Amino acid sequence: ASAASIDEDPDSAEAAWLRLADLAVECGDAALAEEALRRVVRERPLNSAAVERLAALLAAKAPRESLLLLSQYAQGLSPSDKNASRLLELARRAVKELSDVDLAMRLYVAAARQAASPLEVHRELCGFLREHGRTAELMGELLEVAQLELTAGNIEAALAAWEEEAGLAEGGGRIDEALRTLQAMAELAEEE
């Protein structure tokens, strides 16, 4: 397989490297399997079979790298609800398996970008931020949720998100932000 060049005959070379990975796993040589799969992923980062097999090999010894590999793969695909769901699951795993709140937040944001209707993702992210005490980030997300709710015609939900954001701003001594939000709420109420 080392003679198989992805530049000269990409499909044959890819098949050879994947077969080498299979044989290495059968022989118990995880290092060789990993090396072969890394080669395929490096040359073809959207090869789902190679990405998933490499992530599975890495999961036990390098769970962060495994999760990041799956994340990069999902973010490289065309936006879709399927990819958004994949990224949401990775965000949940980032917290559960790695206790990495920052990585989870990035994955939630990536999931929202992928989703056709990002409102549900943003709502879940708000819950996540509340649960982890990330007030500053929560305030920004609440404003995003309010706008999305407004766009969807959910006036009461938009007002509730703004009200929560204003309360957090006031509680954090950010009176100017609280006043801006309350003013926007008042203007919306006048329009209704």
Please provide a written account of the structure.
The protein is mainly α. It is 80% helix and 0% strand. The N and C termini lie far apart (69 Å).
Core attributes:
about 190 residues, mainly alpha, about 0% strand, elongated
Number of strands: 0
- Measured distance between first and last alpha carbons: 69 Å
Structural class, from secondary structure content? mainly alpha
> Overall mean pLDDT score?
90
Unreliable parts = none
- Write down the Rg: 22 Å
Secondary-structure element series:
HHHHHHHHHH
Please identify the oligomeric state.
single chain
Based on Cα principal axes, name the global outline.
elongated
Main sheet overview: none
Strand content: under 5%
Helix content: over 70%
User: How many distinct helices?
Assistant: 10
